[in-house]
Design brief:
Number of helices of chain B: 9
Number of strands of chain A: 0
Oligomer: heterodimer
Number of helices of chain A: 10
Radius of gyration of chain A: 19 Å
Helix content of chain A: over 70%
CATH superfamily of chain B: P-loop containing nucleotide triphosphate hydrolases
Structural class of chain A: mainly alpha
Largest sheet of chain A: none
Order of helices and strands of chain B: EEEHEEHEHHHEHEHEEHHE
Number of domains of chain A: 1
Strand content of chain B: 25-35%
CATH architecture of chain B: 3-Layer(aba) Sandwich
Distance between the termini of chain B: 14 Å
Distance between the termini of chain A: 28 Å
Shape of chain B: globular
Largest interface: A-B, 34 and 33 residues
Strand order of the largest sheet of chain B: 6-7-8-3-9-10-11
Radius of gyration of chain B: 18 Å
Amino acid sequence: MNADRVLAISRRQFYVLWRAPQRWFDMVVWPVVDAVLFGAIGIYFGQQQGGTAASVAFLLSGIILFHVVFQAEVSVATGFLEETWSSNLLNLMVTPLSELEYGAGVALFGLAKLLIGVSLAAVVAFALFAFEITSLGLSLIPLAAVLIVVGWAVALVVIGLILRVGQGAEMMTWGFIALLLPLSGIFYPVRALPDVLQPIAQALPTTHVFAAAHKVVNGHPLPWGEVGIAAGGAVALSALSVWYMTRMLATFRKRGYISRHM
Amino acid sequence: MSGATEPRLRAPVFEARGLVKEYKRVRAVDGIDLTVAAGERVALLGPNGAGKTTTLLMLLGVITPDAGEIEIVGRHLPKERSAAMEQVGFAAGYLPLPERLRVREFLELFGRLYGLRHPAPAVEQGLERFAITHLASAMGNELSSGQRTLVGIIKATLNRPRLLVLDEPTASLDPNVARRVRAGLERLCAEEGTALLVTSHNMVEVERLCERVVFVSAGKVVADGTPEAVAARFGRDDLEGVFLHLADGGVAHEPDQEQVS
């Protein structure tokens, strides 16, 4: 892997973000909106049931961690989409740049976007609702790491779909992540889901991350068993998504789908 | 040819053997063999749908052939694509510059992707060579199509490629700029031994720039030789006559696939 090429792609992504204010929406507006929304819901339900701090912490820790997976996925998927939107795919594909270098460059800059987005949500949660995400302590590190890997894995599936069916698949950038939202037990325990959905929820690595986070928020030590299941699931999902994306790239080259982007 | 050695006698920079590409029920490329030697200026010609762009995209590693082999500077595709592409430059008249990048940023980005650790001097040199230093700070989407083409050609030559592939390079250039581009390309091929493979629908341009033309029709090579020899083979005065003849479904006067020297 050539580090200069990786950094060149990251720099390209920076220029795109810097000069396209509408691209700040995912990174700036959504985290703030979500933090205000779920903080206020937490306050309201807390007042109804007499446990304001606990419900606020439950919901805000959930939405802040959700933004880790959301930002990781959206930054990589939209980073690739930018190349299709600006007809730059052919230019890139005829360079010595490898798929791994391109992915690393986009993901590297995506981490910076993730840091900004999640930090904004955390600052709003603290400033308006006195909730500190850092109260999760060092547990945050393994939980966030698993969520980042899941986000990147989902992004690879989205990129594979775009390669296969074209730009029409771009809505899945936000669509797949939206599917995780109700199924991952972010704002309620998985047992609150309909019976038919619970096995699906249990199969998702994100469900185990949020279950672990909720335990820590409730004052328990980090359940490493849940983290292990989540990490194993994230590794399996990553392997599947790399396989899928590689297959779709081979199909893209075999069927000459570059003509859609010229 | 200005060099001391005949191009065919030089080492091949690019070799394609038996290329085949089929899309659903259409055979776009049907057994194309093509070799380009160092310093040689070759035009790949033919009517729309003849298989030119598919052939170019296969040799650039963007499309996988159904059959056949491609070797660029001793590197086999697709296995050694990345190493092979370090020796290749590509520009197409129809490709826009990516949005949200200034010209200098665009060129420096691609300089780095092609392995230049410090691309700024090569970028400045390229901008000066094509007399567009005043556009260095312009945004890509502010340029005219001709200016975009020039920037694309500069991008394609930043890494001093052994093989330069240009798809319709002068389509949107005025005659004066086209002449400068042609002179710059001739100099590059002569001085650095860069092999040039170009497609164009401008037959006059091709006659001026290229010493060898390869006509493809229905995915097959139907003529390969100097512009004069190919025109004579088809019983035409010039390449435009050959082009129109092939576009109307005509065939050569002699058996196919023989080199015309």
